[in-house]
Each structure stands twice: as structure tokens, then as C-alpha cells.
Write a structure and sequence with these properties.
single chain; about 100 residues; mainly alpha; elongated
């Protein structure tokens, strides 16, 4: 007989840590996306989240993926040292979602 208890515990711990880190990143991206929507549209947190959720449903893209794309899009479209124009960023992001399918 071979005792695999230690190996299984290590594997479970590594998987749990990975899941926790992934969830934390998703939450950060969703919060950042909510902030961008709030700034662009003058919406409060709940309205911004509802708009993101509706856009996620309309585009058939999971909310966490939509938020991550929005944050990444704004990062790549931003010129260092210049302020972000959230309205323009959101408009361009929305257009890119339509072309990505």
C-alpha cells in the first residue's frame, strides 16, 4: 500500500490557491470595469454592474471575461502620462466587442 495523503493534500492546496488568486483577479477586473463604466456614464456602482451584466448577456461573454477585456483594452489604449477618457474608451471597447463577435 502506498500512502498518497500528503501528495493529495499538496495538490488540493495548490488548486485552492490557484482558484483563490483567479477569483481575486476577476473581482479586481470587475471592480475596475465598474469604475470605468461609472466614470464614462455617470452611473453608480449598482447601475454600472447592471450595465456590465447586461452587456455580458447581450454579447454572450462571461462577465469576468468582459471586465478583463475592458480593463486590458483601456490599458493598451492609454498613452502613458495622459489621462484616460473613460467615455471614449468605453465606446471603442463596445465597438470592438461587436467586431469580435
Amino acid at each position: 500500500m502506498l500512502d498518497l495523503t500528503g501528495s493529495i493534500k499538496r495538490f488540493a492546496s495548490e488548486e485552492a490557491n490557484f482558484s483563490i488568486r483567479a477569483a481575486a483577479q476577476s473581482r479586481r477586473d470587475i471592480e475596475r470595469a465598474k469604475l470605468l463604466v461609472s466614470l464614462a456614464l455617470g452611473a453608480d456602482d449598482d447601475e454600472a454592474f447592471a450595465l456590465l451584466r447586461r452587456r455580458s448577456n447581450d454579447s454572450n461573454v462571461p462577465l469576468r471575461a468582459l471586465a478583463e477585456r475592458l480593463v486590458r483594452h483601456v490599458r493598451t489604449a492609454t498613452v502613458p502620462g495622459q489621462p484616460v477618457d473613460p467615455t471614449r474608451a468605453l465606446r471603442h471597447f463596445d465597438a470592438s466587442l461587436r467586431t469580435e463577435g
